[in-house]
Amino acid sequence: MSADIQWQRSSFSGGGGEQCIELAQTSDAILIRESDDPRAVITTTRSKLDAFISGVKAGEFDHLVGG
Q1: Is the CB of residue 9 less than 8 Å from the CB of residue 22?
Q2: pLDDT the model gives residue 4
């Protein structure tokens, strides 16, 4: 994995940021990782991430989170 990848985490992560999902963009993919295990990276496409985010915004995954 290239050292020049710029990872971004949500401002909602709070605290020390040890329990965050981070995203980065390359020329042909979106990368996703957990801050507490940065070696495990998921690669997806922009269109698949767009579909997932649309589902989150629509409340399709609300049953998976507390609060």
Answers
A1: yes
A2: 86
Nearest to 37 by CA among 20, 24, 23, 14: 20
Q: Which residues contact 52 (CB under 8 A, 6 or more apart)?
A: none
What's the CA gap between 48 and 65, in Å, rounded? Answer: 21
- Residue 48's H or E segment, with its range, is helix 46-57
Instruction: In whole angstroms, give the CA distance from residue 57 to residue 3.
Output: 32
Strands 21-25 and 30-34: antiparallel
The CA-CA-CA angle for residues 7, 65, 49, to 5°, reads 40
Q: pTM surpassing 0.70?
A: yes
Q: What is the pLDDT of residues 18-66, one digit of tens each?
A: 678 899 999 999 999 988 888 999 999 999 999 999 999 999 999 998 7
